[in-house]
Write a structure and sequence with these properties.
mainly alpha
Length: 149
Amino acid sequence: MNLVQKIEHWGDVHHAKWLDLIRIVLGLLILSKGLAFIADTEAQKDWILQNNTFGFSGLMVMALVHTVAFAHLVGGVLITVGLVTRFATVVQIPILLGAVFFVNLTKGFSALNSELWLSVIVLMLLILFWIVGSGPYSVDQLLKDHKMK
């Protein structure tokens, strides 16, 4: 058994059922952020262009905004229903790292910066669900149970 399989096995064995409710809320939160990105792409684009430390062009910024929105929409749905949860969380982790370090820290590290704290909590929950997996109330578990019959 390699390290990844050991982590997955440990997560499957030690998954509390109440964590599924937190997973569902996390998925819905990520989905809502994706919808917010889609609803106001111009504001996202303008913010990135104003704080452009990487030298992105306008086309690259729009591609980035749409990629993040798509990843949040698909990842939010997958995390909510518990389908390939570990994969969906791994895709979200780099986005949240960017949100914490490049977006929210530029607004200041204070107790009043609620977006920073939300991003940090979501990042920690993504890491948690990457380790523990989707849990007993998920599509993954339904597929596993169906396969065993």
